[in-house]
Amino acid sequence: MQDNLQSSSYKELEQKSKYTNMFLRWFLYFVLILFASYFIFPLYVMVVTSLKTMEEIRQGTLLTWPSSLNFDSWLVAWGGRGYGAGDTFLRPYFWNSIKMVVPAVFFSTFIGAMTGYVLTKWRFKGDQWVFLFLLFGCFIPFQAILLPMARTLGTLGISNSVVGLVLVHTVYGIPFTTLFFRNYYISVPTELVKAARIDGAGFFKIFFKILLPISAPIIVVTVIWQFTQIWNDFLFGSTFSFGEAAPIQVALNNMVLSSTSVKEYNVDMASAIIAGIPTLIVYVLAGKYFIRGLTSGAVKG
Amino acid sequence: MKTLKIEELSKNFGTTEVLRKINLEIDEGNFLVLLGPSGCGKSTLLNIIAGLETINEGNVFIDDYNVSKVEPKDRNIAMVFQSYALYPSMNVKENMIFGLKQAKTSKEKIAEQLEKVSTFLQVDKLLERKPSQLSGGQRQRVAIGRALVREPRIFLFDEPLSNLDAKLRVEMRREIKKLHQQLKTTVVYVTHDQTEAMSLGTKIAIMNHGVIQQNETPENIYNKPSNTFVADFIGSPSMNLIKGKLIKNSNNISFIADDSSLEVPINNYDFKENSDLNDKEIYFGIRPEHIYFKKLNEDDFDINLRADLSEYIGHEQIVTLDYSNQEILAKFPSTIKIELEKEMKLYFDLAHISLFDLKTKERI
Which terminus has fewer CB within 10 Å in chain B: N or C? Predict the structure, then answer.
């Protein structure tokens, strides 16, 4: 009797928890879909608008699908209309940005890796102070250094040039890249360095042969971070460059704001997407190299 | 010629003194174990021998040559680390020959060494694998192999077995012993495990707070500990130290524990110094395994003690006894049935006792 009673009440509880779980699951999906659409919605509007003609934009609503896929506005955004003065288009500035972002990402990542290596594996007196000051660099608002930096660039004779921007972004990237690499290398056993020293490897050999080959995960993280920061930067670009030396974000701004005639929303949207595509590509390509635990062989498995 | 000699060596980290006036000598082919609790400075000493740490005072000689300022790679040593420290991005073969390549050894010589060592250590089937694809024991073997290929004058081991599980540790211990027997290379080996130290070392240097407490053969360390630290550190459970004093009259000398009237005759004890013994406050040291249930030797001293607790650990049992309000431990075979809360007759093996000065903690 007792047993029966108990088993029936268990059954009831089981039913109940099943319903609760089902409800929670559906609720979870609902919330997730809601947030996902919140994020995807602007992109959808951008893409759809960029494919419409101005006629369609004026008549339809934001959400309507374009009547035909029309890439004219993309071509205009990239290459211009082909007439002389006043025609702003992205192509030259896109290459400016590439010329700026590639060396700046490379140098800041490389220098950050070196500094991180020294701060963890070749400790010296006062190294924690060096690290503290470097960290401080992460918290300085960039607006605060605009004037001194402008003076510096002027003195060096590289203001309003891509080289100047590479320098600025490298210098201000180092605190972040150092922080990344330092935190990564601190978990790499120092015994590796000791073993290599006994084996006769020097400072650079240990860095290039032992540490760099196991740094892939953190290099990817740093590159994504730096690329996004530098590519999307507007402040330094608009302050330290103008005219032909401007990076794409500045050009995009000029293009959208300086239109004297009618606002061409489709061209604006296409330009904005073009300016955002490289960061997307970096995420898609590098994202899959986010593999952790490449050092697992060095320490206990 | 001493293979390794350390002279008046001191080392500080800032204001903390890590090593104080260390003197050590090792003859060719010996196996020296540096043993001590964590933080005693043993690993620092090993790193100094390797050249990975700087010296504040004193000198290190290898083959009578002062290497105090010589780079690690030029000291003709090789080191095996606790975490193995295999280069994660290289396979076993590259790991093993990395040092030889740095030293610009000829290709033929490298191939020959690799072949010899990898067969010897039975890792010749694993040469193409990455360290992450190896088991703990295999990694350990590769780490030893990496040290072996360089044919060093001195092998340095830094707690090489601590990362292995209990069973594998015993196996690898035996292999290291075998290795030393076959190669007869000089070894300095750091561990905090006394069993490892006892079974491997030809000499053991016990360290505490940066000072070498005793540096002798395992037998002497076990039988004649030079102070209470060594007595307490070696042996499991450690030596019983019973507080009391000496009584000397004419030709007889005996020990009386505090709060006790029982005189334990210790006429056969080999005192370092014979003067001033009367009324001296001492620790009477006897190991748990030297308290017997049956009389074994003629000289064994019989004593009645109350058993308070018995811990069964398989092949034997550890019994807590009460010696006039001082707790002492004894080790008996587990076949013996012990009645708790009752006095029983036991025997002290007086040939294996150690006496220490209560104040200086030194052996007398």
Answer: N
Select from B146, B100, B106 the least CA-distant residue to B123.
B146
Is A158 touching B (CB cutoff 8 A)? Answer: no
Read off the tokens for A136.
């401080």
Cβ-Cβ contacts under 8 Å, A210 against chain B: 87, 89
Does A299 touch chain B if contact means CB atoms closer than 8 Å? yes
Query: Which A residues, 170 through 209, put their C-beta within 8 Å of a C-beta on chain B?
Result: 189, 191-192, 194-201, 205, 209
pLDDT tens-digit readout, A15-43: 899 999 999 999 999 999 999 999 999 98
Is the preceding peptide bond at B88 cis, omega within 30 degrees of 0?
Answer: no
Residue-wise pLDDT tens digits, A76-96: 888 877 665 566 788 889 999
Residue A145, domain member (yes or no): yes
d(CA B18, CA B14): 10
Q: Structural domain tally of chain A?
A: 2
Domains of chain B, first to last: 4-233 (3.40.50.300), 240-357 (2.40.50.140)
Kindly state the tokens that stand for B70. Answer: 């010589």
B89 to A213: CB separation less than 8 angstroms, yes or no: yes
Number of helices followed by number of strands (H, E) in chain B = 8, 20
Terminal-to-terminal C-alpha distance of chain A = 54
A292 touching B, CB under 8 A?
A: no
Report whether B133 contacts B123 (CB < 8 A).
no
Neighbours of B258 (CB within 10 A): 13
Domain ranges, residue A6: 2-79
Across the interface, of B87, B102, B132, the residue whose CB is closest to A200 is B102
Asked if B79 and A296 come within 8 Å (Cβ–Cβ), the reply is: no
Distance from CA of A104 to the nearest CA of B (A): 27
CA distance B281 to B283: 7
